[in-house]
Amino acid sequence: MQETFSAIWGLFLSAFISSTIAPGGSEAVLAYMVSQGHYDVGYLVTVASIGNTLGAMTTWALGLLAAKKFPVANLLPKNKRKALNIVKKRGIWILFFSWLPLIGDAFCFAGGWLKLPLLPACLIILVGKLSRYAVIAWLFV
Question: CA 102 to CA 41: how far, in whole Å?
């Protein structure tokens, strides 16, 4: 029982950290756990998706805080301005792709910076993360 709790908690933390500024390998952790066959796949996908979404929303909140302190977009480095411009152009739906390596975190940060609505942003991010983890789990069942 303790081992199961630790493994699930480890997946959650891996997913959370992978979705913040720090790099991580939650996809590999999920793939390994699914391939072992010891856990319910739906439960693993749910845990990873929630952890990854909460990490993305942390990045979104950092963007919101940064916008309060530095309201001028020109203060951002060029790579973050690119994401900001993409989010401005594409709107809230671009947050579905927050699972993409490197640029996904910038989309979340830009979403917070632009003060995109919290609940719709969270739901769109969750659907994107859930879709990605479901595909990974399907590949390793």
Answer: 27
pLDDT in tens, 18-36: 888 677 789 999 999 999 9
pTM of this structure: 0.88
Q: Max CA-CA distance within the chain?
A: 52
Q: Amino acid identity, residue 22?
A: A
Please tell me what DSSP assigns to residue 99. G
Distance CA 123, CA 125 (A): 5
* Cα separation, 41 vs 8, whole angstroms: 12
Closest C-alpha to 56, from 106, 131, 113, 114: 106
In single-letter form, the type of residue at position 14 comes to S
Q: What is the token pair recorded at 90?
A: 């594409």
Distance between CA atoms of residues 81 and 103, nearest Å = 11
3-state SS of 44-86 is: HHHHHHHHHHHHHHHHHHHHHHHHHHCCCHHHCCHHHHHHHHH
Tens-digit pLDDT profile for residues 67-99: 888 766 566 666 667 777 888 889 999 999 999
